[in-house]
Amino acid sequence: MVVASVDNLADERSKAQFDVGAMKIVWAGSKHVFDVTDRMARIVASDPEFRKDNRTTLGRKELFKNTLRKMAHVVKRANELRLTEEEASKLRFFVDEPGYLDLHWGMFVPAIKGQGTEEQQEKWLPLASRMEIIGCYAQTELGHGSNVQGLETTATFDPKTDEFIIHSPSLTSYKWWPGGLGKVSTHVVVYARLVSGGQEHGIYGFIVQLRSLDDHTPLPGIIIGDIGTKFGSGAYNTMDNGFVCFNRVRIPRNHMLMRFCQVTREGNVCLSDVPKQMVYGTMVYVRQTIVSDASWALSRAVCIAVRYSAIRRQFGSQDRGIETQVLDYKTQQSRLFPLLASAYAFRFVGEWLKWLYADVTERLQANDFSTLPEAHACTAGLKSLTTSVTADAIEECRKLCGGHGYLCSSGLPELFAVYVPACTYEGDNVVLLLQVARFLVKTVSRLAAGKKPVGTTTYMGNAEHLMQCKSSASSPEDWLKPSVVLEAFEARAFRLAVACARDISKFSTPEAGFAELSIDLVEAAIAHCEVIVVSRFIEKVQQDIPGDGVKEQLQILCFIYALHLIHKHSGEFLSTGCITPEQATLANEQLRTLYGQVRPNAVSLVDAFNYTDHYLGSALGRYDGNVYATLYAQALRDPLNDTVVPDGYEEFIRPVLKQTMRLSRL
Ligand SMILES: CCCCCCCCCCCCCCCCCCCCCCCC(=O)SCCNC(=O)CCNC(=O)[C@H](O)C(C)(C)COP(=O)(O)OP(=O)(O)OC[C@H]1O[C@@H](n2cnc3c(N)ncnc32)[C@H](O)[C@@H]1OP(=O)(O)O
Ligand SMILES: Cc1cc2nc3c(=O)[nH]c(=O)nc-3n(C[C@H](O)[C@H](O)[C@H](O)COP(=O)(O)OP(=O)(O)OC[C@H]3O[C@@H](n4cnc5c(N)ncnc54)[C@H](O)[C@@H]3O)c2cc1C
């Protein structure tokens, strides 16, 4: 059955004022990436092994086994099709459920590459890349996650046997959370306190074998398992996040990852002259990938909400004629279009961050560590900003879809449940923003000493101007001038950072000031991260962009992104004196105009994400708009509808009815 709603999307598509094909390439990053992504998405969508529409109805054991089957199928297909690394990781991405492959390829392998010596890489990487071993990354403990320096697990060197003894001294020291650890991994990189000659030498990574390669049973001294069912149905429960306790497990000395610190046969600890934070390198790498991924999750939710908002009609007709598409309501637009703009903003900042990460990596290889603090601040800050916004946005998209958004068949509940831990893993978002704040306060204090800021803090070099400037916006159109927008964002961020630095100096110690002012510091950090996103978006739309109308659409989205933030944080823009209340009103007026300009293009702007119906996994977001028939078909497939009279009728419904009948006769 095809209902009238299908016409709505065709109609919407006919209104587009830009070349959707060209926008697809901009979104993908290049024609090459578009081709690879498109091909891999279609391979997954057309393979019944990768079916995912039954996930929320499976019990934990079935669900987990189902994921094991899919991960094995990914490896099989990757080998059969002789996929490149780029292609294989896209293929795995579109399978769209957390699984041990992510931790193996995304953390275990990078940890060895980043922290292992050449010799260690030669030994372990071939085993890992042929998947003769499966690895994971165990840093977090039951009692310690954010505070890495507080980890309790010990790795004590025993010079008699030339081994390390890996030990969990307490319940709180059990490793707890690592993905892939609970049931699958054969090996792990464990982070532990290095102890040699009776002295502690800091936290380092150690490769430990967990399970037999013959029968998968845990090796002696290892107690291991899954930590239990997590939030949401389906969602992250496809993953075996695990615990492990080490009872004096012995490993050879050369299983310590020794690129930055070597322990000799005699137990001497030799530090190389690189910053000790290099041991955190895997986290920096993964944070950078998480920023790129945020735009995928956000755009997926927005795609569902935009298409459904074009289909859904409510009110607007007194005589039972055609009702108004909810997408036409300004309130719907004001909630949805900033999220659409944010998806594009995060896509571009994610691409930029990839570049920054590659640049820093190249410098580190040449022993230039000067850009490491900035790389840390950018990856930490943008990871925090983009994941927090994305998690909130998915929930907002659910509400934008009304009641049907709450159905699992909308795809949104599971997307939220699977995405929201991104605000916690790889660094709690508040903890990471405090790292950014620390970097900003340091940058501000160095200004006073005449040190020129570089990279993303270059704008702070314009200190005198940023402290005094008043916005020149005197009409709504002035808010379409990149210089006007940027100045407001930079002035707000700088003034907040300077206020924090000034106020901290009033305390007896910087630590006391930092602790007391942490709420303000977090706000200053967010403001700085928003400068980065806004300026990268502006830079992007100032480039040559091929395709009819593509640049114009991106400009509209760029200003929506910036102006909705001015509206959201108007308190800060006003209290720091960067803009006046009248200018805030003008910005809002411009924002309303921009919503009107996006409206005819909204469906095509989400089509540009090029998502298959398989990847979207949503009755509401289908490409053909056949929402109601799909909702109905999926309802009929629910296990509860397997029988007309439910299980439990005889035991629990009939007796209640009989009891009621007896009572009514009295
Ligand atoms: C053939 C088959 C083919 C098949 C193919 C299949 C392909 C599949 C491919 C799949 C690929 C998938 C990739 C996806 C990636 C993975 C998916 C992700 C899934 C989720 C995983 C989640 C994992 C985790 O959560 S791991 C645990 C993470 N834990 C944390 O993040 C802890 C957070 N805490 C910290 O980072 C630190 O404790 C911190 C920073 C809060 C404080 O540290 P510390 O106490 O040491 O420092 P401070 O005293 O605050 O600062 C001292 C100094 O150091 C600077 N600094 C801190 N951190 C860093 C850093 N990282 N880098 C550089 N500098 C740092 C800090 O700024 C200070 O500097 P000063 O100058 O002294 O101020
Ligand atoms: C799905 C998932 C997968 C994971 N995968 C892995 C993995 O593969 N390997 C691994 O090692 N770990 C993994 N983790 C663990 C994860 O990295 C940690 O949970 C994360 O780093 C947060 O640490 P925590 O749990 O100790 O939070 P806590 O630090 O206990 O946070 C609790 C609260 O305290 C606040 N807080 C903490 N410190 C401060 C501070 N200094 N100032 C202000 N507020 C503060 C936080 O903001 C938060 O609100 C995973 C976690 C999840 C949820």
Automatic annotation (TrEMBL):
Residue stretches making up the Acyl-coenzyme A oxidase N-terminal domain: 20-134
Main location: other
SUPFAM superfamilies, A to Z: Acyl-CoA dehydrogenase C-terminal domain-like (SSF47203), Acyl-CoA dehydrogenase NM domain-like (SSF56645)
Subcellular location: Peroxisome
A GO molecular-function annotation: acyl-CoA oxidase activity
Domain Acyl-CoA oxidase C-terminal positions: 482-658
UniProt keyword annotations, A-Z: FAD, Fatty acid metabolism, Flavoprotein, Lipid metabolism, Oxidoreductase, Peroxisome
A GO-annotated cellular component: peroxisome
Binding of FAD, residues: 140, 179
GO biological process, one term: fatty acid beta-oxidation using acyl-CoA oxidase
InterPro entries: ACOX_C_alpha1, Acyl-CoA_ox_N, Acyl-CoA_Oxase/DH_mid-dom_sf, Acyl-CoA_oxidase, Acyl-CoA_oxidase_C, AcylCo_DH-like_C, AcylCoA_DH/ox_N_sf, AcylCoA_DH/oxidase_NM_dom_sf
Residue ranges annotated for the Acyl-CoA oxidase C-alpha1 domain, each copy included: 280-441
Protein name: Acyl-coenzyme A oxidase
